[in-house]
Fold these 2 entries.
Entry 1:
Amino acid sequence: MGHLNIEGLARLVSETPSPEEKQHLDDCAACRLELRGLKEQTDAIGSLPDLRPPAGDWVALEARLVSEGLVRSSSLTLQASRWWSSGWLQAAAALILFLGGTALGSGVLASGESGDLAQLGPPQGMELIPVGSQAQPISNLADAADAVNRSERQYMDALLQYRQILDSQGDPTVIGDPTVRFAALEAIVAAGRAAVQQAPADPYLNGVLVSALAERQALLHTASLTPGDRVF
Amino acid sequence: MTENQLIRQACEGDGLAVRTLYERYAPRVYAVVRRIAGEEDLAQDYAQEAWIRAIRALPTFRGDARFSTWLHRIAVNSALQALRKADTRTKREAPMPETVSVDPVEGDVLLGDLLERAMDRLPDGMRQVLILHDVEGYTHEEIGEFLGVTAGTSKSQLFKARGKMRDMLRPTQGNGADGEQGVEAWGI
């Protein structure tokens, strides 16, 4: 019996050899080696990891989901993630690099100390200031974007947990009450400010604070557009 | 919040629930769609289409299978249908290279990259069967349903695909008649 061909050997990766094939494999080191290589190749293919979608994937999908009416456009996550995932992501990544790769994350305070950094594009009414230098060094845009992406995921998890807590407290319509909502956002902003003061380079805390400020701003903006209604 | 609660809220158009499901499963969906597509440019569109279909079909999810399994099948079907609709790709018309021109370097990441690139160069049918069987773990019967072929055809395509991959991954300098050196050169 001659050498087994490559397709025949590929079959033996997952099937039992016939007696003739087994006899040949016992006698032929070359075919044994080739079969071993094929098995290792198959194992390697089976161990390939999942792949992260390219940046901006969610933003494009979200836009389509909204346009097709598959999700509500007024949800907290959509408002927050729209600027966070696109402009904010890039601005934050650029900011991290701009600061010389020494500060991961930036403090967000409304105290008016920011100067030039405010022009990077945070939501109206908020200012970014560079604070802290104890974070891990980041030397390129991809790492910076990864860091911001990670903090965004943490933020989304926190947001989900926050809503779960609100849901578990009873009447879900309370969440939609603007007065209650504003008070809750004020509490988050206050807690966020205190946390950022303590850990100014923490991207998660910064993310929570930025989001709470943006949401509060959006709520105030909504209120200002309805002069005839007494929102608060 | 349990997955069923998330799904229920996503059905009602809750953006946060949809986003959470997306964050959880996007890499899995993108991986299978990207590999079936065979090229990056198509993959993003295919992945988006898969998610749109899945979110649309969410109300039909009964929980008979795991959500990840259900979603994965939608992604596979969506990518295969999109690929069928796509124009004939010039890349497929080009002759398949004998080997993938990458210098051998150690490391799982580079090996993974090498495998991905070799798979991209397989003809569509072989690549789809190889991915669905050896990467995703579907049976030949299931693959037959996906592709509209018999289980026997699926098997035949799989063995050819494995052989082509072996040929492509065999370094040229070790490409002897029986491939002995090539087996060892890549460690696979």
Entry 2:
Amino acid sequence: MKPSLHVVAPGLLTTIQDRGRFGYQHLGVPVSGALDPVSLHAANLLVGNPPDAGALEAACVGPTLAVEADDVRIAVVGANAAIDILPGVAAESGRSVAGLQSVQLRRGEVLRIGALTGANVLYVAVEGGFDIEPMLGSVATDIRAGIGGWQGRALAAGDRLPLRQAKSGQRGEVCLESFFVSPRPRIRVIKGPQADHFPDSEVAAFLGSEYTVGPSADRMGMRLTGRKIAHSRGFDIASDAIAPGSIQVPGNGQPIVLLADRQTTGGYPKIATVISADLPALARLPVGSKVSFEAVSIDAAEAARRDYVAELAAMTDKMVPLRRAGADITAHLQECNLVSGFIDAAA
Amino acid sequence: MTDYRLLPAGDTALTVEFGDRIDRQLSNLVLALARCLTEASIAGVVECVPTFRSLTVYYDPLLLPYSVLSPRIARLMQGLHATEVAGRRWRLPVCYDESVAPDLGDVAARTNLTPAQVIERHSAPTYHVYMLGFLPGQPYMGDIANELALPRRQSPRMKIPAGSLAIAMTMTCIFPSETPCGWHLIGRCPVPLWDVRNDGSMPLLRPGDKVGFAPVSLGEFEGLVAKAADGQLVATPCDDVRDAAA
């Protein structure tokens, strides 16, 4: 049988995502991709994948996945959640593991991820990745268009996600001791492209107000609630393109930040655009979070992006071998396959 | 010299805005600049998205900072003319039978025309494909006859079938896949516009293409739908749709 992960429970909205589908927006194809590319990058590094490889993105509640392969190495990065490895599908308890580290699971074992807290999404990367053909150059799932990922949709119970590797590589486990999440008191934006559709006083009010991440945030957009923003000449514009992080203001005056699954074009004025270095930090914010914005220059945004890219590149050097407490050494040795036969002897 | 504005859309996109309205002249400028930029193949440009009245250029600022990209666009603009970009010509079969045109009667009533007059006025012009958007491969075509221009429906439908032919404001549209929709449905086109899932395939219509509609009966429509389902309906430009099996 093909090595795979069997979806025992899909979680609330679990999709396969990579960095996105570029080059087809002029044909109406959204970019999609990970809401939090920093966490995707980290999860992939921990299992030895290229940093942009496709991984599972889970929102709200994580999936429960049974291993149908000799063994697999996985890493979970992003929101906080209970991560348990159960001995089988019927088991109720098992060992719990931390995020930000690689861990090996054997055939029949079950990875169970609970409710997410502290952030919007988390990523489950698998060594070798999923054996899924890219569509238009990407494995990112676009649920609305029904393309990419696993059958163009979110995972469902009973799915079997094919793996490229039947066995994980022989190596020790690693962890990331520090992890940059660019926490910023204020998210940086560049004004426009349609800041001139708002009175100066309304632009100032937008930048001076605190907003709350509304309950209907999804992969397409983050709806903010707070100070309503008035337009100076109506809220309908002839559609133009929607860049990532565009903050559009529809008729009700409540801003919406457009995220990964945004449509390629749209017809509301965009008061400002979140800079690329701060977009992952914003997209990570869970419902109810407070957020405010500050305007920066293009030069400042480009400098911030250079720092962001440098931090991503430096992440590789921050990976260290997983240290184990003495009491845990047996499990550690088992995981490292250093004591083959031990399990049989103990059984 | 063409009037335009460069509007930063964050630090990875730049919108070249030619105007604020839907206009054929503006569209020609947008498409001309898109072609210019494609031909210039500037390192660091990721992709360009043409819309009714602007072109958005996505770029990697670490390879191509704004301070380098903006003067390059300004130079391209100097040689730009609003000449019609040569698009392909299409004549697509569409069925206006009321069984596949749930809003035809309503549109007729609201425009003080008979359904036959609505069909006649909608199928007479050759339309310009301004842009693709909303759904993969979805063409915004215009302009429709002034007397057919209506605002969108007050209550959008939750789901319309793939191939729905619709009008709203000054535009007509064929929806490539099932979708929620607030436009007025006046017919159905049997020719698949894009099966995105068929890897390597591309959308039938592109910005700048010219599209005419050939009304067909419900019987002919059903026959064409059956052929399309078998992959036997192939549209070719500059000609009527041909039956590949014939």
